[in-house]
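Issue 218. Parser rejects a valid record. Input:
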Amino acid sequence: MTAGGWPDGPIVLGVGWRFSERLVRTAADLADALGRHLVCAFVDPASYLTEWEPDGTRTARSLDPTVNEEADFPSGQMLLSLEILLGQPGERWSFRVLNGEVSQALARLAESTGASLLVVGAERPGALAWMDRLLEGSVSASLLSRQEWPVLIVAGGG
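Output the parser choked on:
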């Protein structure tokens, strides 16, 4: 804990394929106000975690057996979009691509970085989003149920 009572550690922001500017700016403004590093994390749905070792070693595999240059396209595009809003990664913020189930991957990152806070967007409205939640579960609800880190859910951020 710092003198102001806020826990040490970075703020972890979970960003999806379509993230809102409001979500990113809210997390960045909070990180700046608290003097914390912002870690923007994207969990790649085209890969899965096959092994997680206690020493932090992980093995990930793509769901697409063909290796191609397009595999890095989504995370590369996401990084460019984040750079437009936040500037170049560096001391203020960084970008990580994770593998596995979204809430578990974000929780692993929070644990490994000693995060002080997790920030995610509120659930998207609509039938397709409802179907995603039905099949995969709600990321925010899963993170809240762990109660290991404070979780900030940003309305209009999904």
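Fixed in the parser; the record now loads. The first strand starts at residue 11 and ends at 14.
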